[in-house]
Design a protein that fits this description.
Elements: E1 3-15, E2 18-31, E3 35-39, H1 46-54, E4 60-68, E5 71-72, H2 78-84, E6 86-89, E7 96-100, H3 101-113, H4 119-132, E8 143-144, H5 150-164, E9 168-172, H6 180-195, E10 200-205, E11 218-223, E12 226-231, H7 234-242, H8 245-248
Parallel strand pairs: 3-10, 3-11, 6-9, 9-10
Antiparallel strand pairs: 1-2, 1-4, 4-5, 7-8, 11-12
Helix pairs in contact: 3-5, 5-6
The structure holds adenosine-5'-diphosphate and magnesium ion (2 copies).
């Protein structure tokens, strides 16, 4: 069973010629089949955690460990992390001019699976996944994220998730900017992947509304660069009623 283990993770970024510590000792274990929600105020470091796990070069790990099935993730390149089974759906997906969705998906699948998917089954696979996500087939020929609406970007992220079948999926604010219908469609996509029982999901969110559609097994409050409290789904209800204030006192919160 795949397990992602984060131990006492400290991460800095360079900003305005200064080194700023953003993650201040994150501890978290995500096992295949589990869904963890990470909830916290803006600027608490949630995206920094996601980027650090994915290997973004802007984020420097100064101490701590991250392992996937005992393998040192921090030693891996971005590509190696993807091949090892880590997947990140970004809060702000980037445009890739000149690369069609169709080419992008096939290249990604080839990289992750270690061989090109068989064309006939692949085309069917993509078509079905797109239809389930209520995406127009013509979408496949558009350039990645170029001129996509917020909802289209998020659907495209979940399309990748469904096709790449990672061991651990990090979904950074997949709910942001979605209307209720899009939120439902996107959540259903995430739930299809979860139902396989083969993926561990780290659902990063600011709001509780997505948790009405995706039921987490564990909820963690993220504040000031670390996990301030952990509990079950009931913790999300508590946050909905009481906000984050109780967890952010005594430390600066920006953003
Ligand atoms: P969240 O996702 O919880 O809103 P972020 O991880 O995006 O929080 O940001 C946490 C803090 O780190 C903020 O103060 C933000 O300005 C800072 N930060 C994050 N990424 C960078 C970066 N690439 N350069 C400079 N500062 C950054
Ligand atoms: Mg520490
Ligand atoms: Mg963020």
């Amino acid at each position: 069973m795949a397990t992602l283990e984060i131990r006492d993770l400290h991460v800095t970024v360079e900003a305005d010629n200064a080194t700023k510590e953003i993650l201040k000792g994150v501890d978290l274990t995500v096992k295949q089949g589990e869904t963890h929600a990470i909830m916290g105020p803006n600027g608490s470091g949630k995206s920094t955690l996601a980027y650090s796990l994915a290997g973004h070069p802007k984020y420097t790990v100064t101490s701590g460990t991250v392992t996937l099935d005992g393998e040192d993730v921090l030693e891996m390149s971005v590509d190696e992390r993807a091949r090892a089974g880590l997947f990140l759906a970004m809060q702000y997906p980037v445009e890739i001019p000149g690369v069609s969705v169709s080419n992008f998906l096939r290249t990604s699948a080839t990289a992750v699976r270690g061989e090109a998917p068989k064309l006939r089954t692949w085309v069917k696979e993509v078509k079905e996944a797109m239809s389930e996500l209520q995406m127009d087939p013509a979408f496949a020929e558009r350039n990645v994220n170029e001129g996509f609406s917020g909802g289209e970007k998020k659907r495209h992220e979940i399309l990748q998730l469904e096709l790449l079948k990672p061991k651990v999926a990090i979904l950074d604010e997949t709910d942001s900017g979605l209307d209720v219908d899009a939120l439902k469609t996107v959540s259903e996509g995430v739930n299809r992947v979860r139902e396989s029982g083969e993926v561990g999901t780290l659902l990063i969110t600011h709001y509780t509304r997505i948790l009405k559609y995706i039921k987490p097994d564990f909820v963690h409050v993220f504040a000031n660069g670390r996990i301030a409290a952990s509990g079950g789904a009931e913790l999300a209800d508590k946050l909905e009623n009481e906000g984050y204030e109780a967890y952010t006192k005594g430390g600066p919160v920006s953003g």
